[in-house]
Fold each of these.
Amino acid sequence: MTTTTTSATASVAPTSPNAESTLPATAKVPSRIAGPRPTTGVPFTRLVHVELRKMLDTRAGRWLLIGIAAIIATALTIMFFNEGGQHSFEEYLQATTMPMAIILPVVGILAVTSEWSQRTGLVTFGLEPRRMRVAWAKLLSALTVGVAAFALALALAGIAHQAAITFRGITADWGIDGLVLLGAGGYVLLGIAQGVGFGMLFKNTPAAIVVYFILPTAWSILGSMVSWLESAAAWLDMQHTMQPLFSGSLTGEQWAQLGTSVSLWVVLPLALGIWRLTRAEVK
């Protein structure tokens, strides 16, 4: 193996007037690689695009999306033939958003844990050493998927309801409260943000998925069965605090309860997960 050198010379002065330098009088240095030098880092939009690819353009992500589509198609088909198809747009919307809210967070978990389970972290953090930017890109890409999924859920619910009106002759019922829409969209977005937080916190796919599904469910069961936990569950059980959204009315106390539960199950895992992501050893 050879090294290209230039004929430029560098003078080496002795350390003292009476001491002889043990270094050669001249030394050859490597030539500078030609071409412009980079002046900016990786654009944030490119990071978001890459994280979107990680979430959707993989075998696991693809099969999860296929599973969601199959569940939604089955639910809408059952509703179309059950009770003559006489269901409101709101009921069709619930049938399309529930599978997304339950399964999409797993896609967010996989987008984070793949850095360690598939050993892509060396590439990711080598190309972008500022891990905080990577963490925000993962979260933003997950929320983008959530927004697109909710928009698709609205479209599918509208198509199914209109099909029932046209082919089953049902009475149209397009009325839906704004808070119900907010609750349906928030259910999808908060779930996927929570999944990203658990993925960052545990950095292990099985552990993150198990804890994501088991811990909130166990807390909800305990809050409904243990009497002295009922008052705490009213503030800390997100499934309980989101119910008033779907009924279309929230009091000031219920908004405070919703904010408290979201802080515990979404904001706190995200904050701890980002903190751990920026300090974890990449192997």
Amino acid sequence: MDNEILFKERQRFKQWWLWLALLGVNSLFLFGVFKQVIGGRQFGDKPMSNSGLLIASGITLIVMIVFINFKMETMIKKDGIYVRFFPFHLKFKFYAWDTLTKSYVRPYSPIAEYGGWGLRKGLLGSGTAYNISGNQGLQLEIKNSEKLLIGTAKPQQMAELLKKLGQEKL
């Protein structure tokens, strides 16, 4: 195959503190629904209306379902780099090698450079970042001066492949 997948990575949010916070908020609202809507006793000193409690519970459940479905996929093929951060990107974004002025793996500071993890706009001209966790990423600079950092949990493997393909551009 001419355009076989040479590198593939799929990442999901696995931070325990994030899931603990989401479960805690959902549990609190679901407990309120069972106590007030089903049990008929008010939940708290200044309770919400039943419909407000149901709506708030629904919203927190939807947020949790969205987080469960977040995933970032990165592929490197002979023709370039493909990346998708679902559900923000339904199709892969493609970056051809000949459109890149720089491509290399580097350490970065998610909070200092991009304000955290996720789909982020960088601070002070560092561009855009797609990252799930960690502090290693594939830095791309595109001929139109756009910068993109793609987080990776496999920095060594990615760097070796870039060198092998002759596409490590510093």
Amino acid sequence: MGQFIQLVVDGLSNGSIYAVLALAIVLVNQATGLINFAQGGMAVFSAYITWLLTEHGLSLILAILLSVLASFVLGALVERLVMRRFERGDPDTAVVVTIGLLTLITGICGWLWTYNNQQFRSLFSLTTVSIFGAAVSIRSIGTFAVIAVIMLFLQALFLGTKFGLALRAVAINPKSAALSGLPVGRLLMAGWGLAAALGAVAGALVAPQLTLTPGMMDTALVYALAAVILGGQSSPVGVVVAAWLIGVVENLAAVYVHFIGYDLKVAVPFILTFVVLVVRPQGLFGRKVVARV
């Protein structure tokens, strides 16, 4: 039982890493209707900004706050100067552009700061506490709590505020939104800016656990995309629950399903996603899209 609890706790900790990136992807999707593959690269760039500020003597909290602000501006500029040229065209083209941005941002990070591992200070203590016989670090608990707060904030934003409803309206039908008087351009910039700011928080949470490198988010991005598909692209709560589920099931399968083991556990989330999509194509918490003809 002690081993089972430890695997569950470790799975929730790993799932939190995927969840914070998945939330940023959902935010862009709710604002533009696109899946932003560049989100991982933007989070890494923000993490390097935080690291650079701490290396120059700033406190970690202040460095994160400044990085969040800088990331908001960067995300808004990326939308205004790059993505806006493709958002009204073929969606597949826009997705390819985000993949190109991921490659570009990763290369810029490597060029500026090399590909060597950098030690990133943790926001939370590494001290462990015992919970039902499992050793849980304060960092894992803190990360879990931050993810829960962000999840509730985004859920409230999308469902309970005029700004969130406006973002969704622009993503669904930008022409109708513009005719209704909504400032479509500014809303798109705000959506990308908020997602980039959330990516800065993701980078600050993930970097201490993975060590800071330009490719730090590559694997996490794959899992985050699986969580977005599994949980539903329209549900912040859904993608977080899906990310936690992926982390837990992956850990349990690696230990208790012998033919999978640690070598094949990477396939578990994709098998889980495939099974769920066969039964419920919109994801566990997603809304079914109804097209009027």
Amino acid sequence: MSYATLPASLDELPAQARALVAGESNRIANLANVAALVFHALDDVNWVGFYLRDEVCNELVLGPFQGKPACIRIPWGRGVCGTAAATATVQRIADVHAFEGHIACDPDSRSELVIPLIDQGDVVGVFDLDSPTIDRFSERDAQVLAAVAAVLDTAVKTV
């Protein structure tokens, strides 16, 4: 599988992500490549990236991403990302402006999909996708992108 070739369908994303991280244990390198892959493979997204857990202050801190500059720190349990982290559940939000406590890093974002990154049962970060379109992310998107996140969960162990 060529890294220069984008997946022809959504279903190819997990395999492409697996190929990108194969043989590489550096967390930042893998997250950066997967953010770029997904950002360029999906239509109608304006931000794709990762927030990583800072255990000292129990916040999510901005990691590798594609898109406009973003919020640097998100409190655990706050906003869509913080809720996904605190509950260890996928958050698929059709209209972020209707989500109580939403943190508006980019006012152009209208819908959001956030998938917790789990390592040995602990949330170590989140995989965050934003779109300028209401209800952009389907349940199928959530399933496939969770499979992409699972590639990282098992392949990424060190910084």
